[in-house]
Amino acid sequence: MRTFLKIKIFCQYFSQRVSFASLLTLQKHQAGQIASKDVWSTVYNNMFTKEMLYLYRSKDLEMAPTITPEDTLVIRRFPTVNSSSHPLVKEHLPQINVGDVVVLQDPSNSKNYIIRRLAAVEGHEMVSTNEDDEPFVIEEGQGWVLADKKSLSPKESKDSRTYGPISMSDIVGRIVYRFRTLDDHGFMRNNKLSRTYDMPILYMELDSEVMLRFADEGKQTKSSKD
């Protein structure tokens, strides 16, 4: 039974690696980094050389207590493409669901990245607590993100209540694991479907030793600055 489960996880992981390699290649092709004749060789290369997970340390305070500046975060990378109508994108588009904690380009500064929770996607009706505001529906290809820290005002939270709907193509990753200390770590509280989707990647790629080293380096850097 254990062998069967390992085979199942590997097959799920392999399928997602194909999707990831295909989208990453399309992203590079759209950016003019590879020629059309090199597409298939690049897909093959990405299959075996590019990791789907990376480590990140956020300085945001808006997601407390879910995430703090002390946390080492494991991010699942989402390649960004310019057109959601592209047939390759439709076939391999990653599952991003309401409730996921995501990394996205800061709408106020595209050079920066912020972490917020996806609260609504296209087709959802948004109704404000302010009676003067008219309800509206999230348009195709858009999402609504919110900070987790409830004590912040809409302006302080720097989320969709401030800058409105975001483009789903601005989402570059999903946080799948959080590491704070040896005793305080675990899976991020995402949508149940997303957690199921991410599990094979975590099983195959998560390296606890690398994560510990990354966290220790961050603490040493912080101590030297202090």
Main traits of this protein?
226 residues, alpha+beta, Umud Fragment, subunit A, 38% helix, globular
Strand content: 15-25%
Helices and strands, in order, run as HHEEHEEEEEHHEEEHH
The radius of gyration over CA amounts to: 19 Å
Number of strands: 10
CATH secondary-structure class: Mainly Beta
Number of helices: 7
Task: Note the gap between the termini.
Answer: 52 Å
What's the structural domain tally? 1
Largest sheet: 8 strands, antiparallel
| Shape label | globular
Report the CATH architecture. Ribbon
CATH topology: Umud Fragment, subunit A
Note poorly predicted spans.
none
Name the average pLDDT.
Answer: 84
Assembly state of the chains shown: single chain
Briefly note the structural class of the backbone.
Answer: alpha+beta
Helix content class:
25-40%
Draw up the topology in text.
Blueprint (H helix, E strand, L loop, with lengths): L1 H29 L8 H11 L3 E4 L15 E6 L9 H6 L8 E6 L2 E13 L3 E2 L9 E2 L4 E5 L7 H4 L2 H4 L2 E2 L3 E9 L5 E3 L4 H14 L2 H18 L1
Antiparallel strand pairs: 1-2, 2-9, 3-4, 3-9, 4-7, 5-6, 7-8, 9-10
